[in-house]
Amino acid sequence: MEGVNQSVVSEFVFLGLTNSWSIQLLLFVFSSMFYVASMMGNCLIVFTVASDPHLHSPMYFLLANLSFIDLGVSSVTSPKMIYDLFKKHKVISFTGCVTQIFFIHVIGGTEMVLLIAMAFDRYVAICKPLRYLTIMSPRMCLLILVAAWIIGLIHSSAQLAFVINLPFCGPNILDSFYCDIPRLIKLACTDTYKLEFMITANSGFISLIAFFLLIISYVFLLTTVQKHVWKHSSGGSSKALSTLSAHITVVFLFFGPTLFIYTWPQPNSQIDKFLALFDAVLTPFLNPVIYTFRNKEMKVAIKRVFKTLLTFRNIS
User: Fold this and answer.
1) What is the per-residue pLDDT across 97-106, written as a single tens digit (0 to 9) for each?
2) Neighbour tally for 249: CB within 10 Å
């Protein structure tokens, strides 16, 4: 990639989150704790779904893949950010910067498609229950997963195509703790007005449309389930309401920071940093917590997995 870019700048300098030693120490403890917890939580969900036959269903297949993606979300920016907290000179090479951007947008695009697929899965389960296993067949689930990764790769490649050949001749200071396109293109030695509009259209407007479609679909599903509760007052309906509320919470956690960063006309560096930190550290931790604590089947399955592991350890 360095061969493609013929600019003077070969590395970028991060200003980081803060210059205060006490706040840096607090951020180090906070970020390290949540990074480890999110890695363990998401690994636990992936392992539980893969090993427990009771969870071999389309909904949990998609959930396990969302947790797998959250492992990537945690790992793209958090380790370097934690490592840089106590470094005075925070730098990243041009290749490293482009690599970060590539994986951020691959993961972001893939997760967006998976969230849409999870909404479709709930629509089929609630509105077409008799055809659920026919529509959401293993083949369909695999096709959804492959399509999600392909769309993520296409989205990321399109983003990189906007910036890979931009001339960077200085300055090379990024008021952030990671590389992303909105701030990077402002350092280019050329007029980037049209490019900024294209970036907003590619990431911002697509995210906005996807967000509103998801909210509309979940409002429709909640209304449908609520009507069923009023008519029958069944336990299945309350379970569906709990599942839908968990899905909606995760949608807000994912799209909230993304929409602000890519569509807000006058970005504020401090707000952007807070949202980016929230997105990189807290969201991957909260997703497994939300799905685990609000899902009785998942909690029971995790207990079974722990019992099996303890039994196996005692036998050994």
Assistant:
1) 999 999 999 9
2) 15
